[in-house]
Request: fold
Amino acid sequence: MIRVGLVMLQGARHAHISSLNEASEDLGLEIEIFEIRKLSHLISSNPDVIVLPGGESTTMRKTGQDKSSNLIPGIFEWIRENPSKAVMGTCAGAILLADPQDGKPPLIGAKVDRNAYGPQNESFQGIVHSTLLDREFPGIFIRAPKFLSSTDEVCATIGDEIVGVRNGRVIALTFHPELSLDKGFHKWLLESASSE
Ligand code: GLN
Reply:
């Protein structure tokens, strides 16, 4: 049984739940999903996988820093202390991993520029090439950030732009894999949590 912690700060959380369930069925790997609203939920559920959905990173930083939840920056520290966990941050979640703003090293080594493609109506779909999946992936970019450079492994690109960065079992994607029919990244996450 793979324990998956879904961070419930904002964004397409329910689409991630569907994607995780589909990926688990396809792979024949059983999962249990824990909704993480407070740091105490993270500690008590001790997940193997963490998903940090998109949303609005400024809002997520504010709500996550609420004294009653203590989720941010506690979650960043927990990921640093537990390097065997598989983590996926999508869009705003990727921004948080690359720029945790807690005075400690980022979880992903990449320079990120928020809203770099412009406002909501500049959102787009495009074919991502992923070395992680070793194939193309239909990427959905919603008011997406841009990775300007990376000191970690580039694991997804669109043209010559970096849209996915990997640091071991931590991946940060500037797009929304939970909104595509292709469950490749969710499968990768569950598979890497299930491998030693
Ligand atoms: N524009 C958002 C931000 O800067 C990210 C958008 C998203 O997660 N879809 O946080």
About this structure: The chain has a mean pLDDT of 95. The radius of gyration is 15 Å.
